[in-house]
Amino acid sequence: MAGLTEQRGSETAPRSRQLSAVLCSRVNSHWPEVIQETSVLFLFELEQYVEHVFYKLSQYTYDVSKKFKYFVSFLRQNCITNKSDTANTLYKIYDKNSIIECELIVYGLDYIVHTALHDK
Question: Which carries the bigger pLDDT value, residue 117 or residue 38?
Fold first, then answer.
Protein backbone atom coordinates (compact mmCIF):
# COMPACT_ATOMS: atom_id res chain seq x y z
CA MET A 1 0.00 0.00 0.00
CA ALA A 2 3.03 2.24 -0.08
CA GLY A 3 2.02 3.42 -3.54
CA LEU A 4 -1.18 4.89 -2.12
CA THR A 5 0.53 7.47 0.08
CA GLU A 6 2.11 10.75 -0.85
CA GLN A 7 4.73 12.62 1.19
CA ARG A 8 3.77 16.10 2.42
CA GLY A 9 6.48 17.42 4.64
CA SER A 10 6.49 15.32 7.77
CA GLU A 11 2.99 13.85 7.33
CA THR A 12 1.73 11.30 4.87
CA ALA A 13 -1.69 11.67 3.30
CA PRO A 14 -3.34 8.64 1.74
CA ARG A 15 -3.99 9.09 -1.93
CA SER A 16 -7.47 7.67 -1.46
CA ARG A 17 -8.34 10.53 0.91
CA GLN A 18 -7.16 13.08 -1.65
CA LEU A 19 -9.11 11.39 -4.42
CA SER A 20 -12.22 11.14 -2.28
CA ALA A 21 -12.05 14.82 -1.39
CA VAL A 22 -11.90 15.78 -5.06
CA LEU A 23 -14.59 13.28 -6.01
CA CYS A 24 -16.90 14.33 -3.19
CA SER A 25 -16.57 18.00 -4.03
CA ARG A 26 -17.56 17.24 -7.63
CA VAL A 27 -20.28 14.76 -6.76
CA ASN A 28 -21.81 16.86 -4.00
CA SER A 29 -22.00 19.90 -6.26
CA HIS A 30 -23.99 17.93 -8.86
CA TRP A 31 -25.84 15.25 -6.86
CA PRO A 32 -25.79 16.20 -3.19
CA GLU A 33 -28.51 13.71 -2.25
CA VAL A 34 -26.92 10.75 -4.08
CA ILE A 35 -23.66 10.15 -2.25
CA GLN A 36 -22.04 11.55 0.85
CA GLU A 37 -18.35 12.03 1.51
CA THR A 38 -18.43 9.35 4.20
CA SER A 39 -19.78 6.88 1.64
CA VAL A 40 -16.91 7.60 -0.73
CA LEU A 41 -14.38 7.31 2.09
CA PHE A 42 -15.93 3.99 3.09
CA LEU A 43 -15.59 2.70 -0.48
CA PHE A 44 -11.91 3.62 -0.52
CA GLU A 45 -11.41 1.83 2.79
CA LEU A 46 -12.85 -1.32 1.21
CA GLU A 47 -10.02 -1.30 -1.33
CA GLN A 48 -7.68 -3.32 0.90
CA TYR A 49 -10.35 -5.96 1.47
CA VAL A 50 -11.08 -6.21 -2.23
CA GLU A 51 -7.37 -6.68 -2.94
CA HIS A 52 -7.19 -9.38 -0.25
CA VAL A 53 -10.21 -11.27 -1.60
CA PHE A 54 -8.90 -10.96 -5.16
CA TYR A 55 -5.55 -12.41 -4.09
CA LYS A 56 -7.22 -15.33 -2.27
CA LEU A 57 -9.48 -16.09 -5.25
CA SER A 58 -6.49 -15.98 -7.58
CA GLN A 59 -4.64 -18.40 -5.32
CA TYR A 60 -7.63 -20.78 -5.15
CA THR A 61 -7.99 -20.66 -8.93
CA TYR A 62 -4.31 -21.50 -9.34
CA ASP A 63 -4.60 -24.38 -6.84
CA VAL A 64 -7.66 -25.83 -8.61
CA SER A 65 -5.88 -25.63 -11.96
CA LYS A 66 -2.80 -27.32 -10.52
CA LYS A 67 -4.83 -30.15 -8.94
CA PHE A 68 -6.84 -30.62 -12.14
CA LYS A 69 -3.65 -30.97 -14.19
CA TYR A 70 -2.27 -33.39 -11.60
CA PHE A 71 -5.34 -35.63 -11.81
CA VAL A 72 -5.36 -35.58 -15.62
CA SER A 73 -1.65 -36.40 -15.87
CA PHE A 74 -2.00 -39.18 -13.27
CA LEU A 75 -4.81 -40.80 -15.28
CA ARG A 76 -2.84 -40.51 -18.52
CA GLN A 77 0.31 -42.00 -16.98
CA ASN A 78 -1.63 -44.95 -15.61
CA CYS A 79 -3.54 -45.51 -18.88
CA ILE A 80 -6.94 -45.47 -17.21
CA THR A 81 -9.70 -45.40 -19.83
CA ASN A 82 -12.84 -46.36 -17.90
CA LYS A 83 -14.87 -43.78 -15.96
CA SER A 84 -15.56 -46.11 -13.02
CA ASP A 85 -11.87 -47.00 -12.83
CA THR A 86 -11.11 -43.29 -12.92
CA ALA A 87 -13.39 -42.56 -9.99
CA ASN A 88 -11.93 -45.42 -7.95
CA THR A 89 -8.36 -44.44 -8.77
CA LEU A 90 -8.87 -40.78 -7.94
CA TYR A 91 -10.63 -41.77 -4.72
CA LYS A 92 -7.52 -43.70 -3.69
CA ILE A 93 -5.03 -40.92 -4.42
CA TYR A 94 -6.80 -37.69 -3.45
CA ASP A 95 -6.08 -35.83 -0.23
CA LYS A 96 -9.18 -36.28 1.92
CA ASN A 97 -8.28 -33.15 3.92
CA SER A 98 -8.20 -30.90 0.84
CA ILE A 99 -11.54 -29.26 0.09
CA ILE A 100 -10.25 -28.34 -3.37
CA GLU A 101 -9.47 -31.95 -4.27
CA CYS A 102 -12.74 -33.24 -2.79
CA GLU A 103 -14.90 -30.77 -4.70
CA LEU A 104 -12.87 -31.13 -7.87
CA ILE A 105 -13.49 -34.88 -7.91
CA VAL A 106 -17.18 -34.53 -7.04
CA TYR A 107 -18.03 -31.74 -9.47
CA GLY A 108 -15.35 -32.14 -12.11
CA LEU A 109 -14.97 -35.89 -12.56
CA ASP A 110 -16.62 -35.93 -16.00
CA TYR A 111 -14.42 -33.10 -17.23
CA ILE A 112 -11.29 -34.69 -15.75
CA VAL A 113 -12.08 -37.97 -17.53
CA HIS A 114 -12.88 -36.21 -20.81
CA THR A 115 -9.67 -34.18 -20.69
CA ALA A 116 -7.55 -37.21 -19.78
CA LEU A 117 -8.98 -39.35 -22.57
CA HIS A 118 -9.61 -36.94 -25.42
CA ASP A 119 -7.58 -33.73 -25.09
CA LYS A 120 -3.87 -33.85 -25.62
Answer: 117
Q: How many residues belong to the chain?
A: 120
- Specify if 70 maps to a domain: yes
pLDDT range class, residue 28, cuts 50, 70, 90: low
For residue 47, the number of C-alpha atoms closer than 13 Å in the C-beta half-sphere is: 12
In a domain, 2, yes or no: no
* Structural domain containing residue 28: 16-118
Mean pLDDT for all residues in the chain: 77
Cα–Cα distance between 71 and 94 in angstroms, integer? 9
Q: Measuring CA to CA, which residue among 70, 78, 64 is closest to residue 107?
A: 64
Please count the structural domains in the chain: 1
In this structure, what DSSP letter does residue 11 have?
E
Structural domain includes residue 7: no
pTM equals: 0.59
